[in-house]
Amino acid sequence: MPKPALDYLFNPGSMAIAGVSADMARPSPAQWFLKSLINFGFKGRVYPLHPAGGEIYGMKVYKNVQDIPGEVDYVVSAIPARFTPQLIEDCGTKGVKAVHLFTSGYGEIEAEIGKQLEVEVLRIARRTGVRLIGPNCMGLYCPASGLTFAGDYPDQHGFPVRPGPLGLISQSGGNCIFCIREATVRGVFFSKAISYGNAVDLNECDLLEYMTDDPDTKLIAMYIEGVKDGRRFMRALKRAVSLKPVIINKAGNTETGARTCSSHTGAIAGSAGTWQGLLRQVGVTQVGSMSELVDISVAFARMPVPAGRNVAVVGSGGGVGVQAADEITQAGLHLPVLPSDIREKLHNIYGTEAGAIFRNPVDVPPLASKEMYIKAVQAIADSDQIDVIIMHFPFDLWALAHRTILVAPFTEVVSELSQTIRKPLAIVLHYCVSANARKLADEVQEKIVNLGLPVFPSIPRASQAINKYIQYNERHNVNKP
Amino acid sequence: MPKPALDYLFNPGSMAIAGVSADMARPSPAQWFLKSLINFGFKGRVYPLHPAGGEIYGMKVYKNVQDIPGEVDYVVSAIPARFTPQLIEDCGTKGVKAVHLFTSGYGEIEAEIGKQLEVEVLRIARRTGVRLIGPNCMGLYCPASGLTFAGDYPDQHGFPVRPGPLGLISQSGGNCIFCIREATVRGVFFSKAISYGNAVDLNECDLLEYMTDDPDTKLIAMYIEGVKDGRRFMRALKRAVSLKPVIINKAGNTETGARTCSSHTGAIAGSAGTWQGLLRQVGVTQVGSMSELVDISVAFARMPVPAGRNVAVVGSGGGVGVQAADEITQAGLHLPVLPSDIREKLHNIYGTEAGAIFRNPVDVPPLASKEMYIKAVQAIADSDQIDVIIMHFPFDLWALAHRTILVAPFTEVVSELSQTIRKPLAIVLHYCVSANARKLADEVQEKIVNLGLPVFPSIPRASQAINKYIQYNERHNVNKP
Fold first, then answer.
1. Contacts of A429 (CB under 8 A, 6+ apart)
2. What is the reported pLDDT for B351?
3. Which end of chain A is more exposed for a tag (fewer CB within 10 A), N or C?
4. How far is B205 from chain A (nearest CA, A)?
5. Do A29 and B401 touch (CB under 8 A)?
């Protein structure tokens, strides 16, 4: 199979970082870029670049890209915007294939100079054959080739080296970072992620076409503020959707939001109604936030396709159950009353009805045994009237029972069921606001994610994601023989 | 001022807990009830009660309530439902004023015996003059008199002893507990909270009338699944709303939710549309979840009344800003472009526009100095075109900058501004998904809550709460001269 056209972007043999001062007393993003690549294990060569020269982390700082011995495929620019035209000229001379402009101060600022600079760097890029990523963006994350832009600090995990099925194209750097952090915490890993900013040269169409052809990307997610060429984008989208699920968070849906897009990345956001209609027509799964984008990715990447919309909810807490019933129904899923033979089984398992409700949601007595809990869920899973089971644990709901004595059995019950249940199973860890509960919830989440299960932080988020996942599969006939 | 009618409920001189086995090898909710009251510092006398007698925590366990020397005002029943008729008989003979039936297994279960028991206990209560709370509920929390039902375990804080303005009436025990935990973490404390369950005797009307007359309650919040007497409830509501803000989470808004109400507390939920219309007419602030109920309480209890809907958003992160613009607008607030004189001031403060957007949302450069940040927010607060300022910190948005070096200055900036800014100020701590970020966010939240400021976990939650707070004040003419 031939490599997709832009594959060289994600697999540079050698890189330079422009703007890396050797002066450790003045830490800068350029230094952190360099440090991140070294720590992450970038497989090629990396060269620091700064007009003052010197030495950093035992590496020589080159004064100019042309001074670097050997080839340089890819350059990250973290220098002031006014110096970037010369950098790109030099990169052209050196034969650099692509420059990532982390630098901001172009079309997104109000001053006219920003727009002028954008025109100028694009002109130089076209003339010299250098491709540009950005400006005003974080660039590339590609675990397979060791590319990253995530710092390595004790208080924040760098991005995982483990690769996965999700390809992310994000106009915003911050949203890209957040999405990588939230998705990987929930067990969805990345083939590639790219924060592409103002898109003066390489844009959402180029990147979408690349992800469509990339065999490592099984699922495409996008955060976009505006597109450069609507017709080409729709063509690219149609092709993408015909081959892989595509999830899009299109921001700038209000007048104020659209105005903010233009000052963020210089994007023309377009009308919300038009966008939504077009994306629906094409078969894109639309979301309203990065967290919802992650929720849907979790469903796509970690849940078998449900055969239908009938959900059973199992957990402890009566009021939680009432709210869950409303929330699940409002999300478009069904919550049928359990058939009487299943309810009879649940009665027999628990021996009493007091402190338990067996209709659906099933409100299990919190202090009953693990064995009872497992048998109850298995009985429900056996019913052909249930397509999806949501098990939930509300952390800050307890007042009289030791929270940890409830948490451990729940985790063990889920662990046991993950081996035996064939029905799609989703876990909701919610009602979590105190510092102690959050700590406990994070530990439980890590364990359950490691079992391969989809985990969600609330019933509405779980049910909206599951509903959109089912919608996608209905439309794309995944269940048809 | 005369005491409100039910004041004796919240101020018992002496209590008994029925069902406290002296056998420590068999821990039970009754033991935990007792332990909670002792640890919380209940000011009256407490007596354990169990047919087997014995001794627990150095206290004599009485076999029957009539054996207790001296008066008993209030009894908590944590015994099986079938023994409760006799307990209430005995309490009547002893002169007990009220019995809280923690016990479940009444009208909420499917078996006919549950309904029969409910009729029976009510009949005995009426005959003997004992008032009933519940059954199937957690009962009372009243910091002033030392009443609580929150356990005291190392992994979960008991309820705070600090009192506050919020009076909570909740049909669900779990939702009541969660609300107390979430509200107090965010700095909203309670006059009283009551979980009232099936409401066989004392019901939502009695409790609403009590909270209306209670001078310690400045703000009333309710979680209700159904009401016993619609006309009386509307009368009580009208009076309550004329005197205090009333926030209601009416659950069971879908057919499935309504069905679940009936199996949770035996409540008849009624039609969602009817409820919403009636509550709106009366001037109730309606919410859809316990978390939203807390958000609105935070606004009421911790924010000065905004003069209008014009919001300025200040923080770091361009994509976050775009989403915030959409979310704030969708919530009904306005996000005007900052007037040019203010933008000029911001330009002068930061010296450059690159890496910053000054229109609104204001995207401040994350690594700029604290002094610049403070000056920038002060300049915005000086504008008479801005009514509310939302400052936000996205925790999991950073990749190249040490998260902690950004967090500390942000917290100091907020601390400084909390002393000097007169405009309503709300803080959003969000984009928080990794365990490290959550830990950091919880620490920052605690500090900022202690400054007296309202803190919210997301822009949509903050703006929806602020919008409803403004709606309330518009309707109730709080800003009128």
1. A392, A393, A395, A441, A444, A445, A448, A455, A456, A457
2. 83
3. C
4. 19
5. yes
**CB distance B328–A256 less than 8 Å?**
yes
Cα angle for residues A314, A316, A319 (degrees, 5° grid)? 105
For B416-467, what is each residue's pLDDT tens digit?
999 999 899 999 999 999 988 999 999 999 999 999 999 999 999 999 999 9
* B1 CA: distance to closest CA in chain A (Å): 35
Cβ separation of B329 and A361 shorter than 8 Å?
no
Range list for CATH 3.40.50.720 in chain B? 1-138
Whether the CB-CB separation of B16 and B76 falls below 8 Å is answered with yes
Can you list the pairs that B179-183 forms with residues at least 24 positions away whose Cβ atoms lie under 8 Å?
B179/B221, B179/B223, B179/B290, B179/B293, B179/B294, B180/B141, B180/B150, B181/A396, B181/A433, B181/A434, B181/A437, B181/B157, B182/A396, B182/A433, B182/B290, B182/B291, B182/B294, B183/B294, B183/B297, B183/B298
B25 DSSP 8-state letter: T
Instruction: Tell me the shortest Cα–Cα distance from B15 to chain A, in angstroms.
Output: 18
State whether ipTM is beyond 0.85.
yes
- The tens digit of pLDDT for each residue in A135-167 reads 999 999 999 999 999 865 555 568 999 999 999
Query: Looking at chain A, which residues constitute the CATH 3.40.50.720 domain(s)?
Result: 1-137
Fold of A162-302: Rossmann fold (3.40.50)
Yes or no: domain B304-475 corresponds to CATH 3.40.50.261: yes
Put simply, the answer to whether B225 touches A322 (Cβ < 8 Å) is yes
B168 in Cβ contact with B179 (< 8 Å) = yes
Set of chain A residues whose Cβ sits within 8 Å of the Cβ of B109? 353-354, 357
Looking at beta carbons, which residues of chain B come within 8 Å of A342?
none
| Beta strand ranges found along B196-291 (DSSP E) | 219-224, 246-250, 285-287
CA B56 and chain centroid, separation: 33
CATH of domain A1-137: 3.40.50.720
Segment holding B404, helix H or strand E = helix B403-420
What is the topology classification, in CATH, of domain A305-475? Rossmann fold (3.40.50)
Distances (CA, A) of A339 to A307, A364, A382, B135, B258: 18, 17, 11, 28, 18
Q: What is the pLDDT of residues B203-259, one digit of tens each?
A: 999 999 999 999 999 999 999 998 888 899 999 999 999 999 999 999 988 888 888
All CATH 3.40.50.261 domain ranges of chain A, comma separated, are 162-302, 305-475
Q: Which CATH code fits B1-138?
A: 3.40.50.720
- Residue A433 phi, psi (nearest 5): -125, -25
- For chain A, which ranges sit under pLDDT 70? 1-2, 151-157, 269, 353-355, 478-481
Q: How many CB atoms lie within 10 A of CB A281?
A: 11
> From B313, which residue of chain A is nearest by alpha-carbon distance?
A260
* Two tokens, residue B338: 């900052």
A342: Cβ–Cβ under 8 A, 6 or more apart, which residues? A379, A380, A382, A383
Q: Edge-to-edge strand order for the sheet containing B190-195?
A: B139-141, B190-195, B163-170, B219-224, B246-250, B285-287
What is the tens place of the pLDDT at every residue in A196-209? 999 999 999 999 99
Write the residue in B264, B402, B439 that is nearest to A319 by C-beta: B264
By C-alpha distance, the chain A residue nearest B361 is A260
Quote the CA–CA distance of B76 and B31 in Å, as a whole number.
11
Distance between CA atoms of residues B172 and B222, nearest Å:
10
**Nearest Cβ partner for A260 among B290, B322, B396:** B322
Token digits for B288? 């859809």
Q: Using CA coordinates, name the residue in chain A closest to B185.
A: A434
Q: How many CB pairs under 8 A join A and B?
A: 299
Interface probe with B: pick from A109, A171, A260, A445, most Cβ of B within 10 Å:
A260
